Amino acid sequence: RSRILPLSYSQERLWFLDQFDPGSTSYNMPGAVRLSGDLDVKLLEKSLNEIIRRHEVLRTTFRAVDGEPEQIIAPPLELKIASIDLRGFSAQQRELEARRHLEEDTQRPFDLAQGPLVRASLLLLEETEHILLFTLHHIISDGWSIAILVREFTALYEAYRAGQTSPLPELTIQYADYAIWQREWLQGERLEQQIGYWKRH
């Protein structure tokens, strides 16, 4: 990419709020997936890192240049999944500990300028029972995105377990492309019409 990458309007709103209240965890998006059966942690990490490679936005950070925010897309990175062994607890305590870990992770802030803006950990409940915890900042994800990530993660993990390569086609459009299109489309007379509509209402 040879040009400055602007933020989409929704990203700019979240970036501004982060500048206004740095370290806030209000826009952390936590999730948890319970995994039953034999689990290959190396393939779990491989699946997660393939998703991060595929989706530039998951390795994007945000910095200000002359007061204007821009997207910085990092090269593919290797995200390690922290492993937490809860097998020493009783069944009831394990569930409480799992909830505590999720709440603690949710309350850990992200640095939008440093990243990564996604993290994951794996709770080991029993030999064949795990919980995958993940948290993303809302500036790189939304509710629709989570469903896509889970679907892609499942497809990748199943393929890797079977000794196959990724079944997912390469993406032809990334979120940064959408942000550029949005900025170019919504300006001038079109922007004035939109603003005028909301002023009238």
Describe the protein in words.
The chain is α+β, with helices and mostly antiparallel strands. The strands form two sheets. A four-stranded mixed sheet has the order 1-6-5-4, with helices on one face. It has a two-stranded antiparallel ribbon with strand order 2-3. Strand 2 and strand 3 form a beta hairpin. The model has no long low-confidence stretch (mean pLDDT 94). It has helices at residues 9-20, 41-54, 91-106, 143-161, 175-185, 188-200, and strands spanning 28-36, 60-65, 68-73, 82-85, 118-126, 129-137.
H/E element sequence: HEHEEEHEEHHH
Indicate the overall shape.
globular
Alpha-carbon distance between the two ends: 40 Å
What is the number of E strands? 6
Kindly estimate the percentage of residues that lie in beta strands according to DSSP.
Answer: 15-25%
Would you identify the regions where 5 or more consecutive residues have pLDDT less than 50? none
Structural class: alpha+beta
Question: How is the secondary structure organized here?
Answer:
Blueprint lengths: L8 H12 L7 E9 L4 H14 L5 E6 L2 E6 L8 E4 L5 H16 L11 E9 L2 E9 L5 H19 L13 H11 L2 H13 L1
Parallel strand pairs: 4-5
Antiparallel strand pairs: 1-6, 2-3, 5-6
Helix pairs in contact: 2-4
Features:
201 residues, 4-stranded mixed β-sheet, two-stranded antiparallel ribbon
